[in-house]
Write a structure and sequence with these properties.
42% of the residues lie in helices and 21% in strands. By secondary structure, the protein is an alpha/beta fold. Helix 1 packs across helix 2, helix 6 crosses helix 14 and helix 8 runs antiparallel to helix 11. It binds zinc ion. The site of zinc ion has 6 residues, from loops.
Length: 401
């Protein structure tokens, strides 16, 4: 291909992606509106739309309101034109789903994960994907994986996932050669952030967002101008293993006093067990062997002093860590999700208060904490959507060469 031809091809692809993105962002939209939003000419838009219709991705769905002349024809994405698989490996079971282009889950397979070694964990991933790829979801255009741990997305390598016993595992290459599909690997908190951003109840198509996932571990996903920010080493948002308490508890990463040792779901349960003997009046002290997140939640809602203390400490540390994120990034929309969300609005409010105490007050005032709406599905949807956001070409691999 000559350089001029290559440039032309690139421009065409760029325009096509702009048009497709605009159709993605609307339930239905006219060609004229696309031209206005993308600043492309009407002729270019018509040309690109014709290609998208031919590729089976977009259809005409009726007429919009006329603003003077002829009523415009509305265009809409065909939700089931393509399918993707999203995996969430960050729960106490592995969950995989086939997802369509509107983030609707078509089929889900789960397998329990007990104390597995790295090889067994990999076999479980195969088990899920073998089943999901067997059925007739065509065309299936890619697999996105959200995994705990540090991930090098560019290389498709899980650098270190302690719980799954994976070190430098070339997961993308392994899955690509087995299933012959494009594969992307993301940290689960980052995948969750994309899921909430693209498909959550208050979803946006542009702008900035931080999503903090608080489960056994704690991690944040950061979107800047609608794109995932991963940092130089892929670990942007790894706030869980930043030390927040000197001489604190031993963390599973080997350090002492990480945020995870105070504010995670695991830490809350662990601290209740440890502190229960000091709290005779606590209902938790009466049944120390039955302490779980749900018994703590019940005690907390009944104003139990031990549960109150543990939750206050957790919210305090989490709020302070979020204040640091705000200080660096000044992102005003922050979503909290994960197991700790079972503590509901009062917990959210106490994190918000702790954040406000620790941050510059004007910046804190303008920062809104809210609850996520997708739970574990956010990771699945985000892992699959990431591929599309990064490269729409995926959708055309079955149409063009
Ligand atoms: Zn740690």
């Amino acid at each position: 291909m000559t350089p001029a031809k290559a440039t032309h091809q690139k421009t065409k692809q760029h325009n096509r992606d702009l048009v497709l993105q605009t159709i993605f962002n609307h339930e239905s939209v006219s060609r004229a509106e696309i031209a206005r939003l993308t600043k492309l000419t009407r002729a270019t838009v018509s040309d690109m739309v014709a290609g998208l219709i031919e590729a089976g991705l977009v259809e005409e769905v009726g007429f919009g309101e006329s603003i003077g002349g002829k009523a415009p024809i509305l265009l809409s994405l065909i939700a089931d034109a393509r399918y993707l698989i999203g995996l969430n490996l960050a729960q106490d079971k592995f969950i995989g789903s086939v997802v369509n282009l509107r983030g609707e889950i078509k089929e889900t397979v789960e397998v329990p994960v007990d104390d597995t070694d790295g090889e067994q964990a990999l076999q479980l991933v195969y088990q899920i994907l073998d089943r999901l790829t067997q059925n007739d979801w065509t065309p299936l255009v890619g697999i996105g994986v959200g995994t705990p741990g540090l991930v090098n997305t560019r290389e498709g390598v899980v650098v270190n996932a302690v719980n799954l016993d994976w070190q430098d595992l070339p997961l993308a290459a392994l899955l690509q050669s087995r299933y012959h599909l494009p594969v992307t690997i993301l940290n689960d908190s980052q995948a969750t952030a994309i899921g909430e951003f693209v498909y959550g109840a208050n979803h946006h198509s542009e702008g900035n967002l931080i999503v903090v996932t608080i489960k056994h571990g704690i991690g944040a996903g950061i979107l800047i101008n609608g794109r995932l920010f991963q940092g130089d080493g892929g670990g942007a948002g790894e706030i869980g293993h930043v030390v927040v308490q000197e001489n604190g508890e031993l963390c599973r990463c080997g350090k002492y006093g990480c945020l995870e040792t105070i504010a995670s779901a695991r830490a809350v349960v662990q601290r209740a067990v440890t502190l229960a003997p000091e709290y005779n009046t606590s209902t938790l002290a009466q049944n120390p062997h039955d302490i779980s997140l749900s018994t703590i939640e019940a005690a907390w809602r009944a104003n139990d002093p031990l549960a109150q203390r543990i939750l206050a400490d957790a919210a305090h540390s989490l709020g302070a860590s979020i204040a640091s994120l705000i200080g660096v990034l000044n992102i005003q929309r922050i979503v909290l999700t994960g197991d700790m969300a079972c503590f509901g609005e009062p917990w959210l409010q106490s994190v918000q208060d702790a954040m406000a105490q620790a941050a510059l007050s004007r910046m804190a005032q303008d920062t809104q904490l809210e609850m996520g709406t997708l739970e574990f599905r956010a990771c699945i949807l985000g892992a699959s959507a990431f591929m599309l956001l990064e490269d729409y070409s995926l959708l055309f691999s079955h149409v063009y060469d």
